[in-house]
Specification:
Blueprint (H helix, E strand, L loop, with lengths): L2 H11 L1 E2 L10 H6 L8 E2 L5 E5 L5 E5 L11 E2 L3 H14 L4 H4 L8 H11 L7 E2 H7 L7 H9 L12 E2 L14 H20 L2
Parallel strand pairs: 6-7
Antiparallel strand pairs: 1-2, 3-4, 3-5
Helix pairs in contact: 1-8, 6-7
Amino acid sequence: MAQEDAAEFMTAMIMHTRSGYAFDMSAARKRSRVPAPAAPVRTPWGPLVVFRRADGSLSLEWSLRGVTLNQTWTRAGGSEAERLLAAATAHLRGKESAAAKIPTPAGTPFQVAVWNACRSIPRGETRTYGWIAKQLGRSPMACRAVGQAMKRNPLPVIVPCHRVVAADGLGGFAGATEGALCRLKRGLLELESAANARQKR
């Protein structure tokens, strides 16, 4: 399948489903008014799910075979979770304005600076870890620290860390250097590159 055809197929598959969750609430949840878990974003690579972490913050996580998620996190629901998923869905479809309205997540000053630099990378383009370090006034030796900050990005897609690559190749993704997460990173880059090519015709 041609790259552009594959990208069109992937774009068509991306959807934000809410099937059943609103009607599959336990009696305890109904009584306590705890919102039902938000339905994940369905993508060709796997579901993108919103979780609530132990500190109360929300994160977007790819639920992929062979990838272990933190067992202390719980599926999140409510308007804030729905807003995150809607923004991620729009972003994957090429509409980045909704994602731009989501604040950069909290972190250390260095992490936030890295994530903000990442958000400045145009769709369909990539930058290296060294480029990020330079933007922050750091030496190339800070590449490893940049990579660690990317690994801790709680809002992938919203903060498009997949657009940051190694100087000599794809680089890692979410702490992985091979496997499902790296295939996902490549797929996201191919999707955005093909979409840019169609727009330039």
